[in-house]
Amino acid sequence: MIDLNHQPKFHERVTALVDAALQAERGQQEKRRYLGASRLGVSCERALQYEYADTPADDGADFSGRTLRIFEVGHVMEDLAIRWLRLAGFDLYTRKHDGGQFGFSVADGRIQGHVDGIVAGAPVELDLAFPMLWECKTMNDKNWRDTAKKGVAVTKPVYAAQMAVYQAYLETSIPGIAAHPALFTAINKDTQELWLELVPFDAALAQRMSDRAVKIIQATEAGELLPRISTCASYYECKYCAWAVRCWQTNAMGQMEVSA
Q1: Nearest to 140 by CA among 190, 184, 196
Q2: Quick one: which H or E segment has residue 217?
Q3: Which residues, at least 6 apart from 87, have a Cβ–Cβ distance to it below 8 Å?
Q4: What would the pLDDT profile of 24-43 be if each residue is shown by its tens digit?
Q5: Is the dihedral of CA 48, 33, 210, 196 positive or negative?
Q6: How many Å is the Cα radius of gyration of the chain?
Q7: Which helix (H) or strand (E) segment is 155 a member of?
Q8: How far lies 34's CA from each of 129, 153, 205, 250, in Å?
Q9: How is residue 202 annotated by DSSP?
Q10: Count of alpha carbons within 13 Å of 99, Cβ hemisphere only?
Q11: Tell me: the pLDDT tens digits for 45-80?
């Protein structure tokens, strides 16, 4: 039962102000007009259609203030990882000479990707070859330990797909990046432990993700809805999808409805 007599405590009032400010700031940001390579490994193609079309999320399904705070903490921890690796002797580049990010844009800008960094050198005792793609993520303790035990390709296939696509599309502008393993770095947000893994280029995965991107774009622009990941609305991924209500109430003709 809701306590109608509850009076927000001081920390709750301040947090509410912070979260409202973060959400307002995000609302002013320019909308993404492309399919991001970092998302191509997401399991549901229909969800990716909604994302690509910038379809409004269900009521209450937009990023909460807490989620936006989590994102910002992740960015700060990535900056720390850059500092730590450079101190350890890694020649790590996160920006080009003009200040822009390393990345790619294909299909008339409808598919794009921006990488965390490029490793051009490292301590000789590590016996690495360069250039190397660098990808950094932050994880809670449970996910971090699972990744450290089983590897990123098994536990976080979205990240593995992201790296493969980056390597494939950057090969023309950064020759050799697909010939050498990517350096995946994960920071445990609870303990600050580091997991670093060399991830060989998976050409077959990159091709599947590239084909998938084309499929999603073509279907979306034709107004055709691709199948859901599940036939049951109670499926765990569907329950947490930002477009679950819209998706399961779609008309029987399977037409793509992207506007509110």
Answers
A1: 190
A2: helix 203-221
A3: none
A4: 888 888 777 899 999 999 99
A5: negative
A6: 20
A7: helix 152-155
A8: 32, 25, 21, 23
A9: -
A10: 0
A11: 999 999 999 888 887 667 788 888 988 998 999 999
Q: Which residue from 179, 185, 189 is spatially nearest to 148, judged by alpha carbons?
A: 185
CATH architecture of 64-224: Alpha-Beta Complex (3.90)
Whose tokens are 């102000």? That residue is 17
Separation between Cα atoms, residue 84 and residue 228, nearest integer Å: 42
pTM more than 0.85? yes
Q: Which of 43, 116, 29, 20 is nearest to 74 (CA)?
A: 116
